[in-house]
Amino acid sequence: MSTTATTPSSATPVVPPGRDLVVDLARVFCVLLVVAIHVMMVGIAVDDSGAVVATQPLQEQSWFALSTWAGQIMPLFFVVGGFASATAWVGARRRGDDAGDFVRGRLLRLARPASAVFVVLALALVVATAVGVDPAVLDVAATGVGTPFWFLAAYGITQLCVPLMARLHARRPWSTLLVLAVGAVAVDAVRFGTGVTSVGLVNLAFVWLFVQQLGFAYADGLFTRTPRLVLCVVAALGYAALVPLTTAGPWSDDMLRNLNPPTVPLMVLGVAQVCVLSLVHPLLSRLMSTAAARAVVFAVGSRGMTIYLWHLPLLIAVSGVVLALGGPLPEPATASWWWTRIPVWALVIGLACLVSLATGRLERPPRALPTGRRRASWWSVGAAAVLTIAPPFDVMQQGLDLRNAIAGAVCLPFAIWLLGRSRPASRAASSGATSARAASGRAFSDRAVSSSDQATKG
Q1: Structural domains of the chain, count
Q2: Can you tell me the distance from the alpha carbon of 361 to that of 356, in angstroms, rounded to the nearest whole number?
Q3: Helices of type H across 220-327
Q4: Do the domain assignments include residue 185?
Q5: Residue 304 falls within a domain, yes or no?
Q6: pLDDT tens, position by position, 300-348
Q7: In a domain, 457, yes or no
Q8: Structural domain includes residue 4
Q9: What span, in angstroms and rounded, lies between the C-alpha atoms of 180 and 185?
Q10: DSSP assignment, residue 37?
């Protein structure tokens, strides 16, 4: 989730050639909006008996469901993630990396920052349990803290599929989108027809891969080439389609409820959101031409994963400190409480940035393997993938508790160790594989880079 780089002698971000800074801005916007929404969702108070009570003021508002049609930006998050994955895959192929090298790097960028969070949360839950914190309070706090972890599982699954999906996009882009869309509809039909919610977990692949493919298309220049009138019509139709889908159809009008497991409306929302992003791209591109905007986007974007993973633990920790010190806590959902959300949001972002001073290096791209070396084997990469995805997947299903916190604290560091293993490869074999990989898929690579250049020029 990093953005532009800086030179050792200057704090001004240096923009790599062909980089679409609007994508970086969109990613930062998504992260900050997620933090804002969660700050408004968590209400902590003490009742007349002295017991700590946790509520969800934002979700209790009558207008909340409709607001999620604009506020549910996870499809956009996966669109810009698809753009980043497409451009990273192009760069990997040009370096001569194979699919295993690419997957290794993408998994490391998830596992490294996530491992730190799991270790800290496991220790915190062990200590809280040992000192006798009320189990009910601890369960509510832990469940809330683990809410964002579903993203690690879903995004990890899409990253495993990038090499395959990029090839399919290069050969049959529209057919690939159609198959994914039909698959998602079929899964939802079985889920709602049988009442077995767990069937919907298959859409972790179909829905998010569909939205990721939209990011590939964005990188490929499809939306740049599309007339603005068509983009307006498609965006309007996308939002309009949510009305029959959530009234006559089986889906909820609350896009948050449509998130886990993901459902068809999120695909529709993704199409609308990528069209809107394309429409406002010229305006946002002019904004990103200013040094101030680039500096802010770099400052937040280079800490994006840290802010995303740590904001809820920090919010709960701040609330706990205020409670322990007997400090004032406004009644949730009152006017004074709503006004305090702004400084609380800023405080959480600031604390996350402070945390990044210790954990920021975990977000940096992993070092490339030395020339002539490659992954130990596909089995080790596959095992590392399971170890990286399984703990957050379990949290997504069961909620965070001591058991899966410890599992994550053990599995993720082990995955990092597995991904760090390598064995020598013969120079001739490495050279031959490099040539073969560089020769294949040039159409997608060239279109993606050309599109990125055009987008950067605004």
Answers
A1: 1
A2: 8
A3: 222-225, 228-247, 264-287, 291-301, 304-324
A4: yes
A5: yes
A6: 998 999 999 999 999 999 988 888 887 778 889 999 999 999 999 999 9
A7: no
A8: no
A9: 9
A10: H
